[in-house]
Amino acid sequence: METNNAIDILVIDDEKDIRDGCERILQHMGCKVFIAESGKAGLEILEQNKISIVLCDIKMPGMDGLEVLTRIRKTHESVLVIMITGFSKVETAIEAMKKGAYDFLSKPFTPDQLRINVTRAIEKIRLTRQAECLKLEQQRNLADLETEQSRIRTILETLPNGLLVTNLSGQVVLMNPLSKTYLGLSQDLCVGKKIEHYIADKGLCDYIMGVSRCSLTDGKPLENYEFSLSEERYVLARARPIEGEDGECMGAVVTLSDISAIKVFDRLKTEFVAKVSHELRSPLSVIHEQLAMVLKANDLDTSDASQYILGRAKEKTKSLITMIADLLDISKIETGNKGQVQVKIHLDDMIGKIVEFLAGKAKDKQQTIRFNIAAEKISPVVADPIALESVFGNLIENAIKYTPEKGTILVSVDTKDTDIRVIVKDNGFGMEQRHLDKIFEKFYRIKDDDTRFINGTGLGLPIAKAFVDALNGKIFVKSEVGKGSEFTVLLPADKD
Ligand code: ADP
Questions:
Q1: Given pLDDT bands bounded at 50, 70 and 90, which one contains residue 212?
Q2: pLDDT at residue 276, rounded to an integer
């Protein structure tokens, strides 16, 4: 038996034989069959059940088939009506079709004819249902899409950051309202043009285009770009590439954050530190001097305990004076002071002398210190020599300090693209990855079993970084615990 369970059929005929015959055949086809012997009874059944197909005799006492058909058409639009017409009554059949019958069956009909007509009707119902399902699904998808789009629009509009998206050819494809504010653009401006159309800062355009084409990544971690809109108004741009399925670059997503408050806070902090350091420097120097004098006088009378205590106090004031000098240095550099004088410096010469000067310290620890200069001619850099000496002196001293006895320190100078590159490499204690960003922050010191007893202020690297940044250079570090560290400084070569 076929399964047409979902199809309910109503047979309306005043002739019992026809009703019974239809019922048997249709049940055999797997349909659920309802029987009515008059039009009125049929319409009642139709009201109470979910009938899909009605087989209705045209000629019946009381309400005839055409009247039944007219009523069904008015109230049950989707029900298919197959009219059962008398022998050779073609006109009646045509009239029924005009009134909306789906098909007709002429009496007398064979079981096969009934099956063919009903099967055709069932197929039509199936197709109609399928089409309705698809339509519903499509409507649901469209509604979902619209909700999604509106959700994304709301997210973009309420983001606390500016957001800008570019494609591979550098066209801006999306900009949220805040990004237009940060870039000083009118809110009515439409997207679609090249990035230069929206951004006047060439450095920012180059940065975004570099990320869009993945040419900036080059295996290195991506950097951010800072720019100022006006005095006291700073924005940080963070661009990340959009990658296609095969990892190819397809553009960039750029977030813009207002960092003015952080910048102002930082400046105030620097000013405060500078002021306090300045105020402390003179009294501390006086205390240091006086301690030195007392110690000198005490030299004559040998009171060991007080001599020791005074000696320690003098040492501590000396460290404090050094720290204050460092803090004043940082404050100066952070407020844009690149140093007293700006001269051409040949780093190979300068670093050679620093290595020579510090060789004694390395020797005390039985360390080997080597200095390599590239074969090619090294162009000079323009900077304050005292400041540069402090940068490289600090890096080499650190390498000696944080490398155990008998270790090796390698210092090299060469050229990388348009920069002069200095590398200070040691095979000392090394550092865990989690410290590497933080060691350039003021006062950050790693205190583990190896370094706990090594003296320092945690200001050497911040000074070095502040100075290298002020010269538009770069400083970065690679390190592995137990294997050693490698600090690299890149400084732009003098073009003349
Ligand atoms: P200081 O040496 O005075 O503590 P720095 O700012 O020069 O301050 O260095 C910060 C920290 O970075 C150091 O305390 C040390 O833990 C770590 N560090 C610096 N250079 C090296 C190095 N070459 N090897 C291992 N650790 C280092």
A1: confident
A2: 85
Write out the residue range of the structural domain in which residue 284 sits.
262-334
User: Is there a domain that residue 151 lies in?
Assistant: no
Window from 56-65, 424-433, 479-488 with minimum mean pLDDT: 56-65
**What is the band of 221 on the pLDDT scale with cuts at 50, 70, 90?**
low
Are 20 and 117 found together in one domain? yes
Pocket probe mutation, ligand 1, options 330, 361, 395, 402, max atoms within 8 Å of Cβ? 402
Ligand 1 atom with the shortest distance to the CA of 457: 3
**In this structure, are residues 310 and 302 in contact, taking their beta carbons and an 8 Å threshold?**
no
User: Ligand 1 centre and the CA of 427: distance in Å?
Assistant: 14
Overall average pLDDT of the 157-173 stretch: 90
Domains in the chain: how many in total? Answer: 4
Distance 439 CA to ligand 1 centre (A): 7
- Asked whether residue 287 falls in the same domain as residue 303, the answer is yes
Q: Which residues of 60-74 are buried (b: 16+ CB within 10 A; e: fewer)?
A: beebebbbbbeebee
Asked if residue 354 belongs to a domain, the reply is yes
Closest atom of ligand 1 to 445 CA is 14
Residues 86 and 121 reside in one and the same domain: yes
Q: What is the mean pLDDT of the chain?
A: 89
**Pair (321, 222) in one structural domain:** no
Check pLDDT > 80 for residue 34: yes
pTM, whole model, 2 decimals? 0.56
Confirm whether 444 is domain-assigned.
yes
Residues with CB under 6 A from ligand 1: 394, 398-399, 402, 426, 428-429, 431, 439, 444-446, 451, 456-461, 485
- What distances in angstroms separate CA 246 from CA 107, 353, 441, one per listed residue? 69, 51, 38
Q: How far is CA 142 from CA 139, 155, 236, 374, in A?
A: 5, 20, 38, 65
